[in-house]
Design a protein that fits this description.
about 180 residues, mainly alpha, 10 helices
């Protein structure tokens, strides 16, 4: 598993090359969108938001918004570190927070949640390619994180791993022996 500084270094080093991949098709706007989404995803919407980590601290006083997320999810669970599910969960959580806060702050002049959803729909209708590219950039930065932590496809979620442990247990090995610890005499 890579350290926080390794994740940051990888994100900074690969943001520009990732953005340049989009240059031939979408020009400089697409390239900038991809690179900025990659940076945002790697530095602020990292899979490590489920722990006390650098990405959590980068939110400053707003890091309190991620406290429920951290309490609900176990570190490296399928819902935080899973391909596609993790990014979808973090983006959905952040979107839900924005809509909830807008609802609470509407009496003080904040836009209503309905207005925010309408603006989001307008943005999707006018710039679907750029928004899709931003989502791809967020997911690509999450994949970089997962690859640095170890092969995301080879690592099975904890929910599925118990099947292998049960088979070893039935073969005559105790749980401690199945994990390589052995029994004490």
């Amino acid at each position: 598993m890579a350290s926080g500084s390794s994740h940051d270094r990888g994100t900074w080093w690969l943001a520009l090359p990732f953005g340049l991949l989009c240059w031939p098709i979408l020009g400089w706007i697409g390239s900038a969108t991809a690179a900025l989404a990659f940076l945002f995803g790697g530095l602020l919407l990292s899979p490590d938001l489920d722990t006390r980590s650098r990405p959590t601290r980068r939110w400053g006083p707003l890091r309190l918004l991620w406290w429920p997320y951290r309490k609900l999810l176990r570190h490296r669970s399928l819902l935080s570190h899973g391909p596609f599910l993790g990014t979808l969960g973090r983006v959905g959580y952040l979107g839900g927070l924005v809509l909830g806060l807008a609802g609470l702050l509407t009496p003080w002049g904040a836009p209503t949640p309905a207005a925010l959803l309408h603006w989001g729909q307008l943005a999707w209708n006018q710039h679907p390619v750029l928004l899709l590219l931003a989502l791809i950039g967020l997911e690509a930065s999450a994949w970089l994180h997962l690859i640095q932590d170890g092969d995301p496809v080879a690592k099975t979620p904890r929910v599925l791993r118990f099947l292998g442990q049960r088979r070893r247990h039935r073969a005559g090995l105790g749980r401690r022996q199945a994990r390589g610890r052995g029994r004490r005499p």
